Amino acid sequence: MTIRLDTRELAGRLLIIESEAGRSSDPTETPSLRVYEKLRRSLGAFAGVVAFHSLASRALALARMEDPGFSEVRVTYDGTLEGLGATAHPINFDKGTGGDPVGLAGVILIARLLGLLHIFLGETLTLSLLRVTWPGAELDDRNFENRRKA
Length: 150
Fold this sequence. Notes:
mainly alpha; two-stranded antiparallel sheet; 6 helices; globular
């Protein structure tokens, strides 16, 4: 199962938004974990903890196929991630290359989760959920690209 390019792009956008927001909020929590936690809370309220746990577990299984660094990570009963720093080869979750604040591992996991949401909820409901979770965020192509150039 390949990730659609726009799903990876959307994951990257959410991580960039959280990276920029993180400069003024808790700097100890990474952008990837902030995105994941916001999705967990939002989806948990929408579909329940068990439904989110199922989606997150499947997204993690798919992410493991792309990045073996996820092998020691697991989704707990309440949907939180456990074991990110406890692996033999720690996941560089939020360190991109060339000054990019977004790491590939974070993009992989979030994109897999968004891809599953897209499959089960459809594009319209998925985007609505993201807009509720990130009010005012520029998630469409035109607005985001204009903001990045400014």
